[in-house]
Amino acid sequence: MNHDRTGFDALDVARIRADFPILALQVNQHALVYLDNAASSQMPQQVIDRLVRYQTTQHANINRAVHTLSGIATNEYEAARRTLQQFIHAREDREVIFTSGTTDAINLVMHGYGRKFIGPGDEIILTTLEHHANIVPWQMLAEEKGAIIRVAPINDAGEVLMEAYQGLFNARTRFVGLTHVSNALGTVNPVKQMIATAHEHGVPVLVDGAQAAPHMAIDVQDLDCDFYAFSGHKLCGPTGIGILYGKAALLERMQPFKGGGDMILSVTFDKTTYNTIPHKFEAGTPPIAAAIGLAAAVDYLSGIGMQAISRQEQSLLEYATGRLQQLQGVRIIGTAAHKAAVLSFVIDGVHPHDIGTLLNEEGIAVRTGHHCAQPVMQRLGLPATSRASFAFYNTMAEVDALTAGIRAVQKVFL
Ligand SMILES: *Cc1c(COP(=O)(O)O)cnc(C)c1O
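# pyridoxal-5'-phosphate complex -> structure
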């Protein structure tokens, strides 16, 4: 740790980068500048090693055998659940369900809670900032049940209008889905306050934490959210794994999403008795290796400290924002007062797709498009943006490379 001017212990980014073998790659004869962390972040050697150790010394199917390896794999899988429980400060480990990711977790809530408790004329509140993963499942439910979706609007900066949000609640409101951090704009929603509003009306809230869990400490008890979902691959972990946190009392009242092995206590052709939570929601063989890898990723991040990670990313965001503001013809999209690690922008006269292609020639990876959040783009009157998204292993020098890359793009289109 270095002591920086602000008096905080700044991260030793050079040492951290050495943990990530992929960051040493050359792309198009340039050092890779990886600024697509909001789509997927990279994996440190510690997590890779953990996966190798599992596959080489611990792998077997869980829960169904008395043999030694099965016992070890079961213990490691359940230990991974407890690591995730602690990471989000859940009250009990059975409140953590392993899913294949955020999308799967939200679909679980839609099928398990929505299809049981939401009916014709009932209302679901979402925000304009939602990722498609927190829109489409609710539209499918609304279509099936004759329910209605209400959308909390945003201002030009990309902040949800709180009075308008509060005004959406009525006697028919049954559910709220909120993103914690917008993947397209970086806006951090005041979710704690928004959850309190919903609870005043007796309405449960699902928080889509896909862009929050990698960047800040999450405390589900403090937030008092009813459900919280995120993906492993945006958190330096493997793909194909994520979690759904749910309050035990709610999970117990829900119906299963998928049927099959492990989610049952007994099966006859007359009647099946479901297993207790969390197993009721984990049908079939789960992604055992990925769950253990996710726990290793969480241990890695916790070792650095989520506060230190937040501070490092905030300084990157502030520095990058300042640099882009100085560039003529570049406009930052999403100027909320409270943002995390995402910088969306447009360049006058250049299509975002061309920006992404030309930056790639310099080894710079950014994402261009609608970022699976088309309603936000429609609201801001844009077809697409370019998006640089940061992780704690990014450097100020990489921000400078991005700025230089943008200048070079502008020259091509002059
Ligand atoms: C990435 C993302 C999702 C979807 O995550 P998957 O890992 O693709 O399931 C949902 N919401 C937000 C805000 C995201 O950024």
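# post-check
The chain has two domains: 8-43+305-413, 48-303.
Confidence is low (pLDDT under 50) at residues 1-7.
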